[in-house]
Amino acid sequence: MRAQFVLSEIGVGLRRNLTMTFAVIVSVALSLALFGGSLLMSDQVSTMKGYWYDKVNVSVFLCNKSDAESDPNCAKGAVTDDQKKQIKSDLDKMSVVQTVTYESQDEAYKHYKEQFGDSPLAASLTPDQMQESYRIKLKDPEKYQVIATAFDGRDGVQSVQDQKGILDNLFGLLNGMNWAARAVMALMLVVALMLIVNTVRVSAFSRRRETGIMRLVGASGFYIQAPFIAEAAVAGLIGGTVACGFLVLARYFIIDHGLALSEKLNLINFIGWEAVLTKLPLILATSLLMPALAAFFALRKYLKV
Question: Is the terminal CB of the chain with fewer CB neighbours within 10 Å at N or C?
């Protein structure tokens, strides 16, 4: 097979169906950009989980005098020194506990003022209304229930709270958004495949005389199919290249510059450039193989070669 012939046929086919070729490029670019975006979103969620779960604390809040009057869990009164010592001793003995930090009422009041000093409620609070607590860092954040079972309802303990529950709600929302993006990506992928198949069939129909002559002179099936498959692959590759450009520009303008989220949201550990660059070869390979295979199977039935 002469490469010059194949290349000339590719050019002819792309020019004849310029509008449909453009539609294929756009649909492939959008679907693969969403595909790459969903992969990067999964990486981002995993990165955030690893970063935040490592900082998750379980808090054992102790009863104070105010709780003794209003909270059923503290009906026996405020926590005593002996109870605090016993709770600390039991925490230190637990194999799931990595570190235990005590926070006094004064420290709790100071932290509250730092975080919510502008709120009207902060002005009316006093240190004796704050709760003492033990902040526990677990070796495995999934083992929260061990702490809850051991200390919930215990004398002197008002409640046991796990910060992981708050993070799980956030990550659940992010995962839901990611699945929604994947659903749109799948729809766009179907549209792209349909456009590719129709474009190839229109191209084959417009050149049915040439393919008929080639069949009569004994040209092989692959020789006849090759220009059409190559057309689809080239259009798909252009779309894949555009999709890669979208992802690179999105990473650059959303995280590093423009919106500059990496500077404005210091508490979020954003994915790095290596996560983006490792996805680009997969997107390019998909953009090349997906249209080529779609064209190959469409032509097998259409040309009957």
Answer: N
- Answer whether residue 251 shows pLDDT above 80: yes
Residue 100, classified by CB atoms within 10 Å of its CB into exposed (0-12), middle (13-18) or buried (19+), is middle
d(CA 9, CA 3): 10
DSSP state, 254? I
- Which structure tokens are listed for 99? 């570190």
Which residues have C-beta within 8 Å of that of residue 239, sequence separation ≥ 6? 24, 25, 26, 27, 28, 29, 32, 192, 287
Closest to 192 (Cα-Cα) out of 22, 24, 21, 17: 24
The sign of the torsion formed by the CA atoms of 224, 225, 228, 233 equals negative
pLDDT of 243 over the 90 cut: yes
First to last CA, the chain: 17
How many C-beta atoms lie closer than 10 Å to residue 179's C-beta? 12
Strands 133-138 and 97-103, by their bridges, are: antiparallel
Other CB atoms within a 10 A radius of the CB of residue 99 amount to 12
Give, in order, the Cα–Cα distances in Å from 282 to each of 37, 105, 186, 247, 276.
12, 55, 16, 13, 11
Query: How far is residue 51's CA from residue 59's CA, in Å, rounded to a whole number?
Result: 19
Amino acid at the residue 110:
K
The pTM assigned to this predicted structure is: 0.66
Decide if pLDDT at 305 tops 60: no
Residue 149: both structure tokens together: 């079972």
pLDDT at 75: 84
